[in-house]
Amino acid sequence: MELLVVIAIIGVLVGLLLPAVQAAREAMRRASCQNNLHQIGLALQNYHSAYRHFPPGAIEVRPQFPNGKQHAWSAFVLPFLEQASLAEQIDFGLPFDAPENEEAASTVLPGFLCPTTPRSEGTIQGRGASDYGGIYGQRITGRNDPPNGMMLHDRALAFRDVLDGSSHTVIVSEDAAFPDGQWINGRNLFDQAFSINQAPAFENDMRSFHVGGVMVLKVDGSVSFLTEQLDLEILAALCTRAGHDNANL
């Protein structure tokens, strides 16, 4: 009888401790994700220091360019993420999915992967995955035409272009486990159209597996956690560089 009581008590204690252990693990994963974005932010700042502008979001994106190279911002910043040797393996004069770029593209870079995102491998269709996408603009309050984000096609922006303020403008956000999430692929950017974590699976949008929100990187290099309850107009304002809407933030 006493043994059964002890076993019951142990069972209760385990039941009480398990949520706390899971919460601690998620806190560590969230901190790791935050650090990933912090390092990406430093890489973007150093890229800007070297070239006086940020990298373009993508170059020669298809189908506008039928045989476009379609390289992503996340490939351009590799030398500033201590991945200069990997960058040297990429032939930027050829498309991202050219056979000559296959080996480099298959490299899994932990700094582009949120540890909270469930996955069986670090690749998508054989190419290194990325859970972080560049912000092309927003479709919450308008058509995003012309695009008003920080990561554009075939155009490199600088601090001087951020009229809403660098601390009020998101440049990169989590977009976890999306189909085009490959660090070399120029489709590694999106315009925000839904509430956080509410987009349908086929849409690239702010999305994470963290409870209650998503990690974002702002132009000034700071990293924030945006909650799912964030007002849509404020979210839209954060995704634009020159919407003259920072007074609402």
Q: How many individual helices?
A: 5
Order of helices and strands: HEEHHHEEEEEEEH
**In angstroms, what is the radius of gyration?**
20 Å
Structural class by SSE content: alpha+beta
- CA-to-CA gap between the ends? 63 Å
Task: Kindly state the percentage of residues in helix.
Answer: 25-40%
Largest sheet: 5 strands, mixed
Q: Count every beta strand, where a strand is a DSSP E run of 2 or more residues.
A: 9
Strand order of the largest sheet: 7-5-6-8-9
Content of β-strand? 5-15%
Low-confidence stretches: none
What would you call the shape? globular
Global mean pLDDT: 91
Q: How many distinct domains?
A: 1
SSE layout and pairings?
Elements: H1 2-51, E1 58-59, E2 71-72, H2 73-76, H3 84-89, H4 102-105, E3 123-124, E4 127-128, E5 132-138, E6 170-174, E7 189-192, E8 213-218, E9 223-227, H5 232-238
Parallel strand pairs: 5-7
Antiparallel strand pairs: 1-2, 3-4, 5-6, 6-8, 8-9
